[in-house]
Amino acid sequence: MSDTDSPADNPKSIAHPGWTIAATMLASSLAFIDGSVTNVALPAIGRDLGGGAAELPWTINAYLLPLSALLLLGGAAGDHYGRRRMLILGIAIFTLASIGCALTASLEMLFACRVLQGAGAALLMPNSLGILGSSFEGEARGRAVGTWAAAGAIASAIGPPLGGWLVDTVGWRAIFYLNIPVALLAVIIAGRYVAESAEGKEALDWRGALLATAGLGALTWALTLWSSHHGASLQIWFGLGIGLALLLGFILTERHLGNRAMMPLILFASRPFVGLSLLTFFLYGALGGLLVLLPYLLIVGGGYSPTQAGFALLPFSVVIGAASRLAGRLTGKIGSRWPLTLGPIVTGLGFALLTRADPQASYWTSIFPGMAIIALGMAGAVAPLTTAVLSSVDDRHTGTASGFNSAIARTGGLIATALAGAVIAAADGALLGAFQFAAIVAAVFAVLAGVIAYATLGE
After folding, report:
1. If pLDDT is split at 50, 70 and 90, which confidence band does 459 have?
2. Measured between alpha carbons, how far is residue 117 from residues 70, 197, 336, 448 in Å?
3. CB within 8 A of 188, min separation 6: which ones?
4. b/e per residue, 128-162, with b = 16+ CB within 10 A?
5. In which band, very low, low, confident or very high, does the pLDDT at 2 lie, cut at 50, 70 and 90?
6. Burial label, 39 (beta-carbon count in 10 A; 0-12, 13-18, 19+)
7. Are 9 and 144 in contact (CB under 8 A)?
8. 10 Å Cβ neighbour count for 168?
C-alpha cells in the first residue's frame, strides 16, 4: 500500500493516505459482505436451527433494523468522540457479534447476535466514510472514495458465491468466522496508521440521538413488516405514524439546539446537501426495487435456481467495482454535477430497457443489456455521490452527513422493497407485467434523480 502521495495530490498531506484508505475499505467490507453473504445461508441455517419460512427472513432483518436506525447516531458519535475511535469500536462490536453468530445454538440467539452486528456496522460504516472525508480534499478525495466504492462493490459481488461455497464445503457458521481475520487486519491498520479526528467540544446531543434512533427504528421496522407481509396493516400504519412523529420531534429538537445539535438544520440550508439527499432517496429507491424483483422474476418466472439468479446479478457489482475508481478520479477533476446528472439518467435508460425482460428468453439478450447499462450508470453515480455529500458539509460534520445519507439510501431501498413485496403479492399470475411496470417506475425515479442533481449542484 503506497503512502507516497504528494502534497499536490493530497492537500491535507496526511501521513499515511494509502493505509487510511485500506483501513476504511477493510472495515466497510465487513458490512458489505455480511449484507449479501447471509442470504445464501438461510436454508442451511433453517435446517440446523429449526427456523421456518416465517422466521428465517429475520436473520436478515435483525441485522438491517439496527443498522438503519443507528447510522445517524454512529456518524454523530464519530464527529464528537473521534472517528477512528468509533470505527475501531464498531469493528470490535461487529467481530464479537460474528463470533456469537458462529457459536449460537438457537435461532433466538442468532437474531440477538445479528442485532449486535447491525449496531457495529452502524458505527463503522459512516465513520469509514467520515475518515475519508476529513483526510482528503479535491481530486485526492475523489480517488479515495472511488477506491472505497469499488472495494464495496467487489465485496458485495463476491459475497454470495463465496458464501455458497463455504456453506457447501465447511458449513454456514464459516461465513461468520470469515469476518475475524478481516476485522483484525482493519483494527491493526487503523490503530497504527489512521489519524484521529478532533473531538467535539460540547456534549453529544443525546436527546436528538434517541429521537432519531427511535424514529428511524420504528420506520424501518414498519417498512420491514410491510415487505415481509406483502401489504399494509393497522400495525404497520401505526409503526409508520410513530416513526414519522419521532422524526418530527427530532427535527424540532435540532432546531431548538441550533449549532449544538447532532444534525444542525443549517446543513439543510445548503442547496447541494438537500439535492443530494433527494437524489439518494430516488436513486436507491429505484435500485432497491430491482434487487428484490429481478431475482424473484428469474426464479419464479424463468425457472432459475437461487445460485443462477445470484450469478445473474454478478455483472452489476463487477461493473461498479471496475468503474467506480475512474468515476471518483473524474469527479475530483470536473466536479460532481455532470457525473450525478448523467449517471442516474443512464441508470434510468437501463431500467427502461428491462421492460423488454423475458425470463423465458436468453439471459444475454433479454436481461444482461439492461443490467449492464444500469451498472454503468450506477458506477458513474456511486463514488461521485459519496464525494459530493462529504464535500457539501464542513469537516466537523462529515460523519453525521455520511450517516444521514446512508440512512436516506436505506429508507428509499426499504420503501421500494415494501412496494416490491406488494407488487409480487398483487401480480397473481401476471408477474412479468408487474415487473415491467415496476421497471418503468424505477426508470422515472432514476431520471428524476439526475434532473435533481443538475438543478441543485453548481458547476
Report:
1. low
2. 12, 24, 33, 34
3. none
4. bbbbbbbbbbbbbbbbbbbbbbbbbbbbbbbbbbb
5. very low
6. middle
7. no
8. 12
> For the chain, what is the radius of gyration of the CA atoms?
21
Over residues 284-295, the mean pLDDT reads 82
Count of residues making up the chain = 459
Query: pLDDT tens digits, residue range 35-83?
Result: 667 877 877 888 898 876 667 777 877 888 888 888 888 998 998 899 9
C-alpha cell read off for 353? 430497457
Cell numbers describing residue 30? 465487513
**Distance in angstroms (rounded) separating the CA atoms of residues 163 and 152:** 16
Place of cell 429449526: 50
H/E segment holding residue 294: helix 271-296
Label residue 123 exposed, middle or buried (CB < 10 Å: 0-12, 13-18, 19+). Answer: buried
CA proximity to 162, closest of 304, 249, 65, 38: 38
pLDDT tens profile 259-268: 788 888 888 8
Query: What type of residue is 178?
Result: L
Cα dist from 250 to 72, 214, 243, 362, whole Å: 12, 10, 10, 50
Residue 238, number of CB atoms within 10 A of its CB: 12
177: pLDDT strictly greater than 80: yes
pLDDT at 424: 65
pLDDT at 350: 96
Residue 413: helix, strand or coil by DSSP? helix
CA angle 301, 303, 304 (to 5 degrees): 110
Buried b (16+ CB within 10 A) or exposed e, 326-349: ebbbbbbeebbbbbbbbbbbbbbb
Distance CA 344, CA 281 (A): 12
Asked if 357 and 366 count as a contact pair (C-beta separation under 8 A), the reply is yes
- The amino acid occupying position 238 is F
Contact call for residues 74 and 123 (beta carbons, < 8 A): yes
- The residue type at 366: S
CA pair distance 347, 331, nearest whole angstrom: 18
